[in-house]
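Hi there, hope your week has been kind to you so far. Do you reckon you could talk me through the fold, stretch by stretch? Thanks so much in advance, here it is.
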Amino acid sequence: MEITDGVVVTVEYTVRLEDGTLIDSTGGCGPIAVMYGSGQLYPAIEDRIADMRAGDTRELRIPADEAYGAWRPELVRDMPRDRLPPDLALEPGEHYRLKSPDGKMLRFRLIGFEGDVAKVDFNGPEAGKDLLATVTIVSVRAATPEEERRGRV
């Protein structure tokens, strides 16, 4: 059966960063069934499996701009040390989470210090990195009437 919108596809996958860091995998839970075209599967993977059939395995490269986005230099900023909690032990290269005055959670990586100014990177740790995915199509079947009604498995 061909993979088209509305069919149920059972897949196994592993997604890693280029350096081998595991991002997501069905290895721990086993194959998952999704309704193709319903948004249940990561869009960059869904787009690349349309011509696959049951039993096919494919290695996929997902460019950074289709994954977590490009690394953006404007997200590297200077922050006066006195704007950071004084008891926070800061180590260059480490990642931190802080709550802003408006209650929003901020995540950053400390690049280093220039005097009493911290240079921080608010890009996510995966920004600018391609993903490598191994995807196996276990089965493809027509959706049941109930799955069609719900629009998902």
